[in-house]
Amino acid sequence: MKKIVIIAAALVGFTLNANAQNATANATQSASLVLSNAIAITFTGSGTSTGGAVTLPFSTVSDYANGVTSTAQQLMVQSNLAFGVTVKANAANFTYTGTYTTGTTMPVSGVLKLMVTANTTGGTVATPFSTSAFATLTAADQNLISNGTYGSNQLFSVQYQATPGFTYPAGTYTTNVVYTATQQ
Q1: Minimal CA–CA distance to 70: which of 51, 47, 48, 97?
Q2: Which of 21, 108, 146, 184 is the right S-S partner for 89, CB 3.0 to 4.6 Å?
Q3: Three-class DSSP category at 21
Q4: Per-state percent for the chain, helix, strand, coil, to nearest 5
Q5: Are strands 151-162 and 112-119 parallel, antiparallel or unpaired?
Q6: What is the extent of the structural domain holding 136?
Q7: CB atoms within 10 A of CB 168
Q8: Strand 83-89 and strand 177-183: pairing?
Q9: Is the pLDDT of residue 139 over 80?
Q10: What was the pLDDT predicted at 17?
């Protein structure tokens, strides 16, 4: 009987040890992300908002008669919201550098044109621009891409075409083309 009491006491002791729980403690902390709206537009060739100079040389009669077209220029938009892109020339007339003093005022409108050659922004190319024909640039903001999708690598490419005809004297005619990405 003594053995039974000792065995029973041992079993009770083992059972109490098996049911004993370790003590625990928890600590909780809140982590909040404070996001602001963000947008950027850059030229992929330079990686900055300033693209490399585009030169359109006119060296033959055929160039004057038919115009000259640039290579494609690729831009990238990064935005956390849907966006649109506008385009404009920074002035109504080209700036002239050369030796002539008269006949050098060349309007941008009607001479410098733009076509979208690729568009993976998720948006649509806005009228009057298209992926199949050149449209005239002006000094006023013109919609270029509408309803672009948010993301970090939204790309589109453009080409320029200049058709000054035979009206203007030799020299360098320059304008800046300004692209503006705006969240919608």
Answers
A1: 51
A2: 108
A3: coil
A4: 15, 35, 50
A5: antiparallel
A6: 38-183
A7: 19
A8: antiparallel
A9: yes
A10: 55
Residue 130 lies in a domain: yes
Contact in structure between 50 and 43 (CB atoms under 8 Å): yes
How far apart, in whole angstroms, are the C-alpha atoms of residue 146 and residue 148? 6
42 near 152, Cβ under 8 Å?
Answer: no
Contact 94, 110 (CB under 8 A): no
Write down the pLDDT at residue 5: 45
Degrees to nearest 5, angle at CA 179 with 177 and 183: 165
CA 46 to chain CA mean position, Å: 13
At 176, the amino acid letter reads N
> If you average pLDDT over residues 31-39, what whole number do you get?
96
Weakest mean pLDDT among 22-26, 77-81, 86-90, 126-130: 22-26
Tell me the pLDDT of the chain averaged across its residues: 92
pTM (two decimals): 0.85
Residue with tokens 């903001």: 141
**Who contacts 96 (Cβ-Cβ below 8 Å, separation ≥6)?**
104, 105, 106, 171, 172, 173
Q: Are 165 and 112 contacting, i.e. CB atoms less than 8 angstroms apart?
A: no
Radius of gyration over alpha carbons of the chain, in Å? 34
124 in the Ramachandran plot: left (φ > 0), alpha (ψ -120 to 50) or beta? beta
Q: Is 115 within the bounds of a domain?
A: yes
Q: Which residue's entry shows tokens 């100079």?
A: 53
- Give me the pLDDT at residue 20, please: 64
Q: What is the largest CA-CA distance in the chain?
A: 129
CATH code, 121: 2.60.40
